[in-house]
């Protein structure tokens, strides 16, 4: 199954009731990076992976600084 660049989305979902985030990705690059970081997919489908990762493992890089979430 071949996806367009636009369809290779990644969605990160979390709330403040738990310290885990669910990451869905249809991107081989993102899935490979998460696996390389030591996370294993909890679910796979044709063209998509779901991971559970600690919220404090998420950071957002901006133009001026990188912010750690959690």
What's the short version?
With 70 residues, the protein is mostly beta strands.
Task: Note down, in words, how this protein is organized.
There is one protein chain. This protein is mainly beta and 70 residues long. It starts with 9 loop residues before the first strand and ends with a strand. The protein has one helix at 28-36; strands at 10-13, 20-25, 43-45, 48-54, 59-61, 66-68. The radius of gyration is 13 Å and the shape is globular.
Estimate what percentage of residues fall within beta strands.
Answer: 35-45%
What is the chain-wise order of helices and strands? Answer: EEHEEEE
Helix content: 10-25%
Tell how many strands the DSSP assignment holds. 6
Overall form: globular
Q: Name the assembly state.
A: single chain
Helix/strand layout:
Blueprint: E1 10-13, E2 20-25, H1 28-36, E3 43-45, E4 48-54, E5 59-61, E6 66-68
Antiparallel strand pairs: 1-2, 2-4, 3-4, 5-6
Name a few traits of the molecule.
70 residues, mainly beta, two-stranded antiparallel sheet, 1 helix, globular
